[in-house]
Design brief:
The chain is globular. The protein has six helices and five strands. Strands 2-3-1-4-5 form a five-stranded parallel sheet, with helices on both faces. It starts with a strand and ends with a helix. It is an alpha/beta fold. It has one domain (2-145): 3-Layer(aba) Sandwich (Rossmann fold). The longest helix has 13 residues, at 103-115.
Length: 148
Amino acid sequence: MTRVLITGMSGTGKTTLLEELARRGHATVDTDYDGWTRADGLWDEQRMERLLARQADVVVSGTVENQGKFYDRFEQVVLLSAPIDVLIERVTRRTNNPYGRTPEQQAQIATYVRTVEPLLRRGATLELDGRQLITSLADSIEKLLAPS
């Protein structure tokens, strides 16, 4: 049984990493989509409770204020990180999410890197460099998912 949370700032590659893990046959949930995050920006806690109660092996991604309530139910909390210039470049060219295209949103991302990322780092069991190839990042996550 292994549950992994992948967290990090916008543009670190969380969604792309989950897509690669799903392609490899792993159960994944990207909480940026499909109603996992409520209008107030927090996870739907009851829905997350149900997922973690019934899903023994799953990789979840997201970055929300209430995610820490669930850290004890993940065997690993992985922080994806990258320099701010990489994040800004990525969010301006991605097609699956409009967040990060405006100067105001980019300034917000820079603020979050300074204020939120250190909090995520403290709660993480592992930090991975989001500039690595997605296949290499997926290999690292698969090692966490492998039975010991």
